[in-house]
Input
Amino acid sequence: MNLSWLDSRLARRGAIARIARTALGVTAVDAFLAERPSGFAAEPLPAGTNIITLFMRGAMSHLDTFDPKPGREEQGETGVIQTKTPGIVFGESMKKLAGMSDRLAILRAVTTQTGAHEQGTYLMRTSYPQINSIRHPAFGAWALHAAGRHPGDLPGYVLVGNGNDHPGSGFLDPALSPVPVADPKAGLENTMRPAYLTEENFERRLSLAEKVDRDFKASYGGNQIEAYDRMYAEAVRLLGSVDLEAFDLSKEPESVRDRYGAGVIGKGCLLARRLVESGVRVVEVEVNGWDMHRDLFEELPTKAAGLDKALATLLDDLTDRGLLGTTLVVLATEFGRTPKINENAGRDHHPAVFSCVLAGAGVKGGVVHGASDERGHSPDSGAISVADFNTTVAAAAGLPYEKEFHAPNGRPFKIGGGGTPVREVLA
Amino acid sequence: MPTTPPSRPFLVALLVAAASAGLAASAGLVASTGLGAEAKKPGAKRARAAVPFRLPAAVRDAPDGASFAVAPIDRTARDSVRAAAARIDAILAERHARDGVAPPPSLSDSQFLRRAYLDLGGRIPTHDEASAFLASTDPDKRAALVDSLLESADWVSRFYNVWADTLRLTERPQKNLWSEAYLDWVKRSIAANRPYDEWVHDMLTADGKLWENPAVGYQLRDQGMPLPYVDNTVRVFLGTQIGCAQCHNHPFDAWTQHQFYELAAFTAGTRSGTGGKPEKPVRKEMRKGARADTADATAKNVRALIAESRKRANANGTKVNNAFTQFLQANGTVVNFRDRDLKLPHDYQYDDAKPEEGVAPHVLWGEVPQEARDLDGRAQFAAWVTSRDNPQFARTIANRMWKLCFGVGLVEPIDDFRPDNPPSHPELMDHLAAEMLRLDFDLREFVRIVVSTEAWQRRAIPYDPTTGEAFSFAAPSLRRQSAEQLWDSILTLVAHDPWAYERPTGEAFAAAVNLDLSRKNPGLDAAHAAFERYEDSQSPRKTRRQTMQTYGYKGQLLARASELPTPLPLGHFLRQFGQGDRETIDGNRTVATVPQILAMFNGPITHAMLERGSTVVDELAEHDPPQAVDVIFLSVLSRLPDEEDRKLALEEIRGAVDRRTGCGNLIWALLNTREFLFIQ
Output
């Protein structure tokens, strides 16, 4: 029975390869048929390691989530909850995660220089400061570059809920950039050809476009044009693929959808699980709304509870499916928030110290590394830079973090930014 | 038995289509090809007249243009424009000779036509516009085209999109800020071609409610965040990044935290009572017995009405009407200014001052202009920012406008002027800044000069800014169409009247929304009646359905990008193609992604183009294959096909199951070329 499925899948690959050759021109065929994009020497991730990153945009307050200071004036209205790990408390909204702290590694003394969202986010994503003369690749692009994507039609890297300021593949192959899914509930849209458009006509259209475009492409080369050639190839590869179901959350029972909760965080985590199960190697879920300059104690509990519910369910599901051992889950944000509560009952930007969390593949559970001082203002011990943090992520995912890669301009770069991994949290 | 895998239908379709094209033709695929695909059954051709249009009538009607007037351009100034353009070319030529740069060839007429329409009108030309220009024998036709574009609604739309991205224009920056009138004000300022320094000064000093004095929308964009307000203002108008200094002295930056606070001290007294609890310092002043002005009276009335509305809801056991509360708060938002001391933060860590010490206002460079020194802090700040003697004001906008035309700034990023990041072409930078002063900040005239240069009229050069190499400016860089250009270009292929829908005018919005709360409290019932009048006429919540019925197609509002709500949801075509989120300054991007291609393949706007009643389909109805090919090439790519193209196209049309299928395939194919997507 499985054979017929395999047959049709192979036949489909044949058809796609034919479209690639006849309709998209020779250049695109490589990208089409290669299971891994070309590039410099790559080293494989440990069998099947996947990465799911949850990025809290706007700067998640450390004091109200993973590094509370009970009894201090700075704590404001946020209460605390005892975790499964002795001596460790979380903000009171992290109810479920508190009960599974034995699966979490908390990094409580991440520190950075920049208190501006754009630069902070860029640094966290790429491990390098944003400068004008180069575009650094996002972590996910590095992971695919070094380890390749899984076989199949699905992209190697999916970004859920993002606007358009993601560094993407940076100076690496444009094919390594993430496929953005704006709204996890809607999934990947426009994947069905309209009923009137036959496969043959579709092919004719693509082939014609390619031919008319020859003069233009001969006159203007360059990365931008090449990037579009790659995206056309990727899009054709996806059209009509059986694997597209992975993007469709309605395939999940309502009870499962409820367990993950609403919003980009809930739907995004569920989508991340489905995608990883179907062979997407890297999923990044971006959740906005953490920039709480005003009324933090009114807004944070809902936001944090959404995160708690979604992340806890994700970890449970990955555990149940035997995927947590091969999937690294990262919770990150661009910086922290001020211990001092401002006159609008909010907290402002605070790069000096903040918290990030790791779980799953390559990571020890029940560990807290580093501590902030008694006010939550500066690192007290175990301070790590963003590069140290990302190098730790790279180490946990089995990526070659010590290896030098060279950008087209010859400058050397390392996955994770050349930091020192935090051994204490690595399994 | 496992169920049939979903890939089966795909293969079946493939095989059927390949094996039985003839059968398909007789089985009714004839008309169901996408090109005017209104027919679903065999024999539908005869019944066509009875099939309703799917494109809304409003956009199929003959165009009556935009509702607003645009300031006329001075055609007698062409000689001086040419001379000014020649000076720029001379400066570039000297540099190119020094650097050994060989400029690329000049644009052909059709390439010029396309670039001019896209850069100045924000869209591709229609078939008729393209034919007329290419057929014209007027030796001055390029200048004539530039002039007519710059006084068209298309230019206003295009330039509005540019500023919407820079100024982060959105209808609801916060729930209780209703900014429609401000958005319209920006558009009208462009249409009237008001001098840039003047409208910036207005934005930095405006007082009042959003619909009484819409320029207040700028200050309200960062309401409640006085420090980011200063940071953003200096970034946008003075091309300087001082944001890092908000928190600390940066080791590599010129600016100290103390300087940041000194600058912020000018505008710290900007207030906008929103009916909520007044800010602490205001409460203090009120206690001190300061005169309660109209803003305070308004705030008081708003608070009283909200409290009363809550009380009544509680008594009736109903929920508080949040929309009504926001309506009251929106009417209670009155921008005004009262000098106020700014204090350093409690954790100030440097030796030059103490934490929580008061800071006296001081500008970053130069001085506050003489004539403004007796004015209040905010007015002093505005005078300094927009002064002719503040070199950064002219340089920043000259560089911005240069980038708009060439795709790359002489200083990049355009908001990061500093000694360590000098312009790539210093002589040109100086000259352009001087030109900006000579033109008294007439941005449209500046753009008119730049696009009249030989450099701008040369073939584009592919350029990757991330290589770190400087751009030569021998021609514009090869740019992908912006999201708005792409949308408006496709709309050009769809809508006979792309201006059928326009965003509400400031006047219409003001008339519907205004409730005067500055004197006496009108009482809950009167306030609620005013709210309902607003809801019925202008509220986006209530009017959306009607709007979509009249101007919508498959969930898409068929209107110019400048007229669409903002920010659009992430999944919208414009956002997919990189339109900014209106939170990031200059947030538009042109990065390639897979969903963009899927939208080009299968998205609703691509379908709209092939519907019966679309501009391109109607144009085709009157032409047989050889001419039809010309029509399609002119409509989509703004050029005639060359011999090879014509051969391919005719083969396609003749080889297809029928002419309409072939034409549909050709239109679709041209839309999916890189030639379409990029501005060469």
